[in-house]
Amino acid sequence: MSLTYCAAAPGHPHHGPYHEGEYGFSSSDDRVLFERLVLEINQAGLSWLTILKKRDAFRAAFDSFDIDRVAAYGEAERARLLADAGIIRNRLKVDAVIENARRIVALRETHGSFDGWLRAHHPLSKAEWVKLFGRTFRFTGGEIVGEFLMSLGYLPGAHQSDCPVQAVVLGLNPPWKAAMDAGYRGYQPKE
User: Fold this and answer.
1) 126, 134 contact by CB (below 8 A)
2) Residue 59 in 3-state DSSP?
3) What positions does the entry give for Zn(2+) binding (predicted)?
4) Do residues 69 and 105 make contact, with C-beta atoms less than 8 angstroms apart?
5) Nearest alpha carbon to residue 139 among 182, 99, 105, 179
6) Which residue pairs, CB below 8 angstroms and at least 24 apart, start in 52-55?
7) Binding residue per annotation — 6?
8) Measuring CA to CA, which residue among 54, 97, 53, 41 is closest to residue 73?
């Protein structure tokens, strides 16, 4: 039997702080949202520990996740990123991050912010979110979208029901809980 994240993360130097202070917690800060999307895209095919260990390097490489700056990247910045051993040097992932920043800039025209776009579409089932992200962003398959939304409280399941962090998250009324309290039954939290 494998350990769950809630059992394995506490006390770990990288997983612990993420599990206890970020995972499942909502945010309206577009930089936080963009950072989480960038990290989830780069995690594809790798361990989450690898990404957490490289998080500071990602922050430095992508100008502290400043969406406007990343959206303005050209060929010189792309080449710099592909040569940066501190991050994941995958052309498809680098290109997706830059293009997704541009798409977030465009979303501001219709929704004011990335957060506004998420809130305008919530609640949706995971399958509906995956379709929406697939039409809107690049390199956002089911696992990436699911983890991104779960990590930000849009989908349930970040923590087990008996995890002490779950009580904290519930006390903050994450978007998935607010939707369920309002009668949305498109998903149920994991037990």
Assistant:
1) no
2) helix
3) 6, 19
4) no
5) 99
6) 52/14, 52/15, 52/18, 53/14, 54/86, 54/87, 54/88
7) yes
8) 97
Look-up of token digits 């361990």: 47
CA 43 to chain centre: 10
At residue 122, the 3 state secondary structure works out as: coil
**Cα–Cα dist 81/120, whole Å:** 33
Q: Is the pLDDT of residue 191 over 80?
A: no
- pLDDT in the model for residue 186: 86
Q: Residue type at 19?
A: H
Give the tens place of pLDDT for each residue, 129-186. 999 999 999 999 999 999 999 999 999 999 999 999 999 999 999 999 999 999 998 8
Q: Do residues 163 and 6 make contact, with C-beta atoms less than 8 angstroms apart?
A: yes
Instruction: Kindly report the number of other CB atoms within 10 A of residue 187's CB atom.
Output: 17
Determine whether 18 is an active site residue: yes
The CB density around residue 70, as the number of other CB atoms within 10 Å, is: 24
Clarify whether 40 is annotated catalytic.
yes
Which of the residues 20, 35, 40, 147 is marked catalytic? Answer: 40
Residue 64 φ/ψ region, left for φ over 0, alpha for ψ in the -120 to 50 degree band, beta for the rest: left
Is 12 a known ligand-binding residue? Answer: no
Calpha distance 79→59 (Å, rounded): 17
- Residue 110 structure tokens: 């219709």
Q: Please, what are the domains in the chain?
A: 5-11+31-180 (1.10.340.30)
